[in-house]
Write a structure and sequence with these properties.
Blueprint lengths: L2 H4 L1 H28 L6 E15 L23 E17 L2 E11 L9 E11 L3 E7 L23 H9 L3 E7 L5 E9 L6 H5 L13 E5 L3 E7 L8 E10 L3 E9 L15 E11 L5 E16 L2 E18 L2 E14 L10 E13 L4 E11 L12 E11 L1
Antiparallel strand pairs: 1-2, 1-18, 2-3, 3-4, 4-5, 5-6, 6-7, 7-10, 8-9, 10-11, 11-12, 12-13, 13-14, 14-15, 15-16, 16-17, 17-18
Length: 409
């Protein structure tokens, strides 16, 4: 008998135990909330964003193409004007000084032909915290990004995220427990155990690096070029195995910080589970920032790692890395930002005809203006270079010019 089939009853029992444990945590949290109702505090916040985008690039990856942007034209030589509207809403509830409940989601109107859900949940978690400890349970972003530092994991510097944070927004969202310990103002240690990220790495392998700001919601399926079935990005666990992440951050409060993060999803190397292919993905992120609260900010992140899948008779491993350097200057109501980055993927075995190989660069220039306490406008130019031999049209370079108007509440 197939050992995978033999193991299914045991896996199902483990899943039931895990689910019962989560239900107990939720029940305890609800009882605590009810007992602390007199001290509750409720906050609603969010963004309404409208964008007009000029894009010169081949069809977008969101439509099953190889284009590097969230939107695309008919071919690499064509251009197009696109409208995108996005609403992000978040809720914070603090029924006690040591307890926080948070949820946020997104709804968007995108061009016809775009794959995936138009609305859904991004984060939902419970925080138990003291002066030095914080325990978080639920679905959440890992605190790695040096650019997506504003509420609801948005960027204060640019409209389009770096290639690294574009990928994290698409495929990396732990669902589990995160414990953070800060013994003083200068040191923070953190560890995470999670599930529900078994397919991370699919997009990097099949499509390569991209640039955008489209965040995957819970249960989101992302298109895979070549007519393959859409991939489950963030959702229910496939192999019932825990992934782990660890991080350490040293900082001079409000002046500078340096953080190292390691993540391993520990996905099981089998060809298929419930119609999806797990990818064993391990990577490190080194992030640094100087002048976080100053008029001039310098930030950088470097990520490197590998992702592996299994097929009948063997495995395939792809290495990847990306780095960006961001410089931003704020003067009263205006902020100017320049970001330069590079990104690569390649087969771990380095064959001469490596169809997964890509070497790309991108430059982003953005001007954002605060038009009042609730309104922000901006203009941004992005130019990405780089070819991908395995693409239908290997010319995956392109550019965008984006006009944005955002209302904050």
């Amino acid at each position: 008998m197939d050992p995978w089939t033999t193991a299914l009853p045991y896996r199902n029992r483990c899943a039931n135990i895990y689910n019962r444990g989560v239900k107990r945590i939720v029940a305890v949290a609800l009882c605590t909330i009810a007992a602390s109702a007199s001290a509750q505090s409720f906050q609603l916040h969010g963004f309404l964003t409208a964008r007009e985008i000029y894009v010169k690039a081949q069809p977008s990856w969101t439509e099953g193409g190889f284009g590097r942007f969230d939107v695309g034209a008919a071919s690499a030589d064509d251009h197009r004007y696109v409208n995108v509207e996005v609403a992000q809403i978040g809720v914070d509830w603090t029924p006690a000084t040591w307890l926080l409940l948070h949820a946020d989601g997104v709804a968007r109107r995108e061009p016809s032909g775009t794959h995936g859900r138009r609305a859904g949940l991004l984060q939902g978690f419970v925080d138990l915290h003291s002066e030095r400890l914080r325990l978080r349970a639920g679905a959440f972003w890992l605190p790695t990004s040096r650019e997506n530092v504003d509420p609801l994991w948005t960027s204060r510097y640019t409209i389009t995220f770096s290639a690294l944070n574009t990928w994290i927004g698409e495929e990396v969202r732990p669902i589990g427990l995160d414990l953070q310990y800060s013994p003083n103002f200068y040191l923070t240690l953190g560890g995470t155990v999670f599930r529900g990220n078994d397919t991370m790495g699919t997009q990097l392998s099949d499509r390569g690096w991209a640039l955008g700001n489209r965040l995957s919601v819970y249960g989101q399926k992302l298109p895979v070029p070549g007519g393959e079935p859409d991939e489950l990005a963030i959702g229910s666990d496939l192999d019932h195995r825990n992934g782990y992440s660890e991080r350490v951050r040293v900082q001079l409060p409000e002046r500078a910080s340096l953080q190292f993060t390691h993540l391993d999803n520990r996905a099981e190397l089998v060809p298929e589970i419930n119609g999806q292919t797990p990818w064993l993905t391990k990577f490190n992120v080194v992030g640094a920032e100087v002048g976080s609260t100053a008029p001039t900010t310098l930030a950088a992140e470097w990520a490197y790692g590998d992702t592996t899948l299994a097929f009948p008779g063997g495995t395939y491993t792809m290495d990847f890395d990306t780095v960006y350097l961001l410089l931003s200057q704020k003067s009263t109501t205006d902020r100017w930002t320049v970001r330069a980055e590079r990104f690569t993927t390649r087969s771990h075995k380095r064959p001469p005809n490596d169809l997964s190989r890509e070497n790309g660069h991108a430059i982003t220039v953005a001007w954002l203006r605060e038009n009042g306490p609730h309104l922000r406008s901006g203009v941004e130019y992005v130019r990405a270079s780089g070819n991908r031999p395995g693409a239908t049209d290997p010319r995956t370079a392109g550019s965008t010019i984006t006009l944005e108007l955002r209302y904050r509440f």
